[in-house]
Prior knowledge:
CATH architecture of the largest domain in chain A: Orthogonal Bundle
Helix content of chain A: over 70%
Largest interface: A-B, 46 and 48 residues
Largest sheet of chain A: none
Order of helices and strands of chain A: HHHHHHHHH
Number of domains of chain A: 2
CATH topology of the largest domain in chain A: Tetracycline Repressor, domain 2
Oligomer: homodimer
Amino acid sequence: MSRWEPNARGRLEEAAYELFLGRGYDQTTVADIAKRAGLTERTFFRHYADKREVLFGGAGALHDELLRALDEVSPELPPIEAVRIAVETISALMHGRRQLARERRRIIAAHPDLQERDLNKRSSLTGALEAGLRRRGVAESAASLAAEMGIAVFYSGFDRWLDDPAERELTEIVHERFDELKAVAAGAGSRNNDTGR
Amino acid sequence: MSRWEPNARGRLEEAAYELFLGRGYDQTTVADIAKRAGLTERTFFRHYADKREVLFGGAGALHDELLRALDEVSPELPPIEAVRIAVETISALMHGRRQLARERRRIIAAHPDLQERDLNKRSSLTGALEAGLRRRGVAESAASLAAEMGIAVFYSGFDRWLDDPAERELTEIVHERFDELKAVAAGAGSRNNDTGR
């Protein structure tokens, strides 16, 4: 970035969400967002390729942090434990962002093309996690299954987090769901009993 | 269908794949497909909404069969076992369709919009399986995790099936991957050992 703007990215994000929710995603332009944030369009484009990227810009950060966290886990740990630690690490990044994430979900739910993009991001994240496990020496099929399970726990935990009546943190919910995943894989969970919630 | 055409749907599918691969998906029209199959465009539209549906028409059958199979499983079985049986049942539908499925994968890989549609179908299938488990009385979070695992096994098994050097049947590969899923969830699979393949 060639010019310093105090927290320009955060201000643009906040302005964009306010407009997406107030007047609607389709009715909001990049010019509107920049104006509301008190910044120029040029500054907007230094941070985001287009308005859609405001909704998905966080995915790149999640991706990088997921792989960084994975690389720091001891190679002695089983793949599912390495995945658990990496997924719990990125879950912590969502701290304080619940309201924004709820608004994001509402916007995406109203736009099939944004839903498809969201599924794409999930698929990329799964692929990146699988590749990270392969680099640790995990066999292909174990890497693919562990990555699928980890991302499924993250996304299903994320949904739960948005609606959690107790407003628990995402890391706590994800931690619990990994335990539940293991229990369900081992044959628990029939008819509202041991894993009923 | 108002008029009987002997295996019109299968003939249209075969003609479509030949054209998609021969001249390219984008260069193929519905008229081309109907002509090659020796049928009218009107007959085409009795079977498929558009040429894209030829690639995704099978997903509806998978969806119905998955839920039918799930409903036949004893309610006493744990969710993951019910899912396993249902997924193995739909895997059997792929018998004899490996070459077609390989061609389908090649076409989809060349078209980002088809990839997104494919991800969408996967997401719908997961949602339908989850809803089927909920109807069996399985608690929400166990249903969601068991459905995610089952569909992950199906899709990753499917990919393996397309490339399997031993040309084993999909049901066999999926059966094996469910065992592996359980092992990985329980902590197996570190560094090319117990689940290495």
